[in-house]
Automatic annotation (TrEMBL):
Keywords: Signal. It comes from the Eukaryota. Residues 82-115 form the SWIM-type domain. This is SWIM-type domain-containing protein. GO terms for molecular function: zinc ion binding. It comes from Ceutorhynchus assimilis (cabbage seed weevil). InterPro entries: Znf_SWIM. Residues 1-25 form the signal peptide.
């Protein structure tokens, strides 16, 4: 029975370094008298003891060269933690201590970390840390291509054929409304719309506009339309929202349907993002 007791005692003693240190290290770096003298408030010290007993000290680091104790202590409800720093004198007294909690100085978080340091730091300790994150394992660093090698992939099982294009066109037309790719898939007209009417995007990206000294004059010249062109465009864009050419022509233009909103924005001197989205055709 005695041998079993001794074996159990030695196992607990050497398996828990904190228990071993409490027994073997008789000379503490931070004395209880120093903590009492610095805090100078029995209620705060009592709250610190309660926090220590409730395992509210999240982690602690001790730098023996700088004589600084740093750590984190949970708040009372453990919903967040506060960083605490304690600076010691060479004789073990507390020179200063800070905490990021609302109280800031001489709070129970400081008391809890100081008490934790009293029990776990001895004069023989070098720079140490509790609850420090594990160091990464040594080894070569792999790039993304090595971790996730590309896999052979094709969007289509077979090649693009005329039959597949026609099926896609019929599918798009079956929706009854204009969708993003409709105007690209339609057959190109003999007299393309852009040859009869200036498209704003093409004007501002044209060589004449980019190289012009007076860009405003060039822009006005290219945007000008005569009565015949206006009637031609009206006939070409019949149906409006159901006609993809209607979207192409009105993009970036101040049309009758949006000009009222522009005047109202100018009068209020407020230009909301939604107005620009409307003008850009988004």
């Amino acid at each position: 029975m005695f041998i079993l007791f001794c074996s159990t005692f030695l196992f607990v003693l050497f398996s828990d370094p904190f228990v071993f240190k409490r027994i073997m290290a008789f000379k503490h770096v931070l004395k209880l008298s120093s903590i009492n003298a610095f805090i100078d408030d029995n209620k705060i010290i009592k709250r610190g003891e309660n926090a220590l007993e409730s395992s509210h000290v999240k982690k602690m680091e001790f730098d023996s060269d700088l004589q600084i104790i740093r750590g984190e202590v949970f708040a009372s409800m453990k919903d967040k933690s506060y960083k605490v720093s304690i600076v010691l004198e060479q004789n073990g007294d507390i020179r200063e201590a800070t905490c990021i909690c609302p109280r800031g100085i001489k709070c129970h978080h400081i008391a809890a970390l100081a008490l934790f340091g009293h029990y776990h730091i001895s004069v023989t300790d070098k720079a140490c840390a509790w609850n420090a994150p594990p160091k990464p394992k040594d080894g070569p660093v792999k790039c993304a291509e090595e971790l996730y090698p590309p896999k052979p992939y094709t969007a289509l099982e077979g090649g693009v054929t005329t039959a597949s294009i026609n099926r896609l066109k019929e599918r798009l037309r079956s929706f009854g409304n204009t969708v993003g790719f409709t105007w690209l898939l339609n057959e190109e007209s003999i007299n393309p719309l852009e040859n009869r009417f200036a498209i704003i995007e093409e004007i501002i990206s044209s060589k004449d506009f980019l190289e012009a000294t007076d860009k405003v004059s060039v822009f006005r010249q290219k945007c000008a339309v005569d009565d015949h062109s206006i009637k031609d465009i009206a006939a070409t864009t019949t149906g409006q929202v159901s006609n993809e050419k209607w979207f192409l022509v009105r993009k970036f233009r101040l049309t009758a349907s949006n000009f009222g909103a522009i005047i109202a924005a100018c009068q209020r001197n407020r230009f909301p993002v939604s107005l620009f989205k409307t003008l850009l055709g988004e």
